Amino acid sequence: MPSDVPAAVIGQGVIAACSAEARAEGVVRGLRLREAQTRCPDLVACPVDPVRDAREFEPIITSLEERTPGVEVLRPGLCAIRARGAARYYGGEQAAAGAVLESADSLGVEARVGIADSVFAAEQAARSTTELSAVLVLPPGSSKDFLMPFPVDVLGQAKLASLLKRLGIRTLGSFAALPATDVLARFGATGINAHALANGQDPRGVVPRTPPRKLDHAVDFEPGLDRVDQLAFQLRATADAFVAGLQTEGLVCTELKVLITDEAGSRSERTWGHPRHFTALDVVDRVRWQLQSPSSAPPGSGVGNGLSSPVTRVEFLPGRVDSIAHHGRALFGDGAEEQIHHGLSRIQSMLGHEAVVVPAISGGRLLSERRRLVPWGDALPAGSTGLAARPWPGKLPDPQPATVFASLIPVLLLDANREKVRTDHRGGLKAPPKWFCPTGDPARRRSVTRWAGPWPLHQRWWDAVHKLEADRFQLVDGDGEAWLLLLDGQDWWAEARYD
Fold first, then answer.
1. Which helix (H) or strand (E) holds 175?
2. Distances (CA, A) of 178 to 181, 190, 263
3. Is the Cβ–Cβ distance between 102 and 185 less than 8 Å?
4. How does pLDDT run across 161-208, given as a tens digit for each residue?
5. With a threshold of 0.70, does the pTM exceed it?
6. Which of the residue ranges 56-70, 266-280, 315-329 would you say has the lowest mean pLDDT?
7. Read out DSSP for 325-342?
8. Cβ–Cβ < 8 Å for 291, 231
9. Checking DSSP bridges between strand 113-115 and strand 135-137, what pairing results, if any?
10. What is the mean pLDDT of residues 263-280?
C-alpha cells in the first residue's frame, strides 16, 4: 500500500488509529468506520493486529532508547519518557524533545512531543501540536489550566464521559472543579482516577520497559540480488548467526517470520512453522521456498511471491521460541521419529515446500471440505480447529468412510429399467436403485444389495459460485463394497468408499 494513502486501523468497528492523510479528511480516533468512510471515501481500513503493530513500532522504540533511556510503551504509536534525566543530559527540555524528533525523523516517521507534569497532560499536549510546531512544553504547575477546555471525551472512558455530559459536565475544567469526595461517592474508583487526570495529577508514573533481547537478524544487499541461488548462498551466514544467537539464550525457534523487501519497496511476509525447531539450513530453505512460491508471483518475475525486482533486504524474526532443553538429543539416539523427520525434511528440501503434506480435519459438510492437507511443519490455518468443532447440521455421521476421493468420480445408479435414478419434488426416489456402475460404464454394472437415503444437502444458497444443492446416498453393491454417492442435479458422483 502506498505511504500517502489515507489509512486507518479498525478495532471493534471504530477507528483505533489513522494516518495523517486520513486525519486531514476529518477521520479521528473513536469514529465509527461507516462515518469515517463517509468523510473519506478512499479510506483503506486495516484490522487491528497487536502483534503487527508492536513489531512495526519496535524499531522506533529501539531508536528512542539509544538517545533517551527510560521509555515506556503505552500502546503502539504512543510512549512516555521521563523528561528530567533527558533534559539534564541534553541541556534542556526543548533540546531533549529535539533529540526525540531527530530519532523519529531518521526512520522516516513523523512524531510529536508534549512535556507536562503528568503522562495524561503530556499526551494531550503532544496531540495539540501542529506540523510547524511539533513540540509543546507546559511550564511546571500549568497542566490543570491547560486541560480545562478539553472535552471529557479525552479521558478515554466512554461510559463516564456519557454520564458526565448528561449531568451537564462537558469539560475537564468543570469536572476538576467538583470536590474529590463527591466524585468518589458518585463515580467510584473509576471516577476518582479520571478526576485526578483532569486536575493534571496523573497517578501513573513512567515505568521504563526492559529492552527485549535482540533475537531477530537482518541482512541488506547492495546492489539487490535477483537470483534465488545467490540469495540462498548469501543468507547462510546470517541464518547461522540467527540460530546461534537463539542457542546462546538457551532457545530454539519453532515458528519463523521471514520478511523480504525488494528495490521497488514491495515486501513479502510469511510465517513458517516447524515440527521441531529451525536449523540454519531450514531457515535458508524457507526463504528459498518463499521466493519461489508461484501463488502470487507476477508473470515473468524472477524471484516470485509478488516480488518483481531484486531483493535488497531479508529479515528473520522468531515468531515462537522454546527452551532448548525441550529439544535435546535422546540418551540412546533419536529413534525412528527423528529419522522420519529428517527424511521428510530432506524430501521437502529437494522437491519444495508443498511436496510433503499431512492431513488435518477442518469444518464443512462435504468430506472434501473437512479434509485439509497442510505442508509438513506448517501450523493449521487460523480458525481450522474452531471450524471442525462446529456442529455442521447435515454432515455425514460416524463412522466416516476410509477412502475419500481427491475429486468426485462420475458413476451411474440405475433402476430396474436401467434408467438413471432420480428424486422427486418431495426429495424421495422415483424408483428404487437396482444397478450400480462404479466406472460409469453400464456394461460393467453391479447389483445393489442394500441402500439408504437420499438425504438432501443445501448450503450457501446466497453464493452463486459455491452454492450446493445435492442429495447424499449410501449403498452396498453386489461385490460387498459400500459407497457414499452424491446426486448433483442429473448426475451421480462417488464421494467416498467404505473400506
1. helix 172-176
2. 9, 15, 59
3. no
4. 889 999 999 999 999 999 999 999 998 888 999 999 998 887 777 888
5. no
6. 315-329
7. GGGPPPTT--HHHHHHHH
8. yes
9. parallel
10. 84
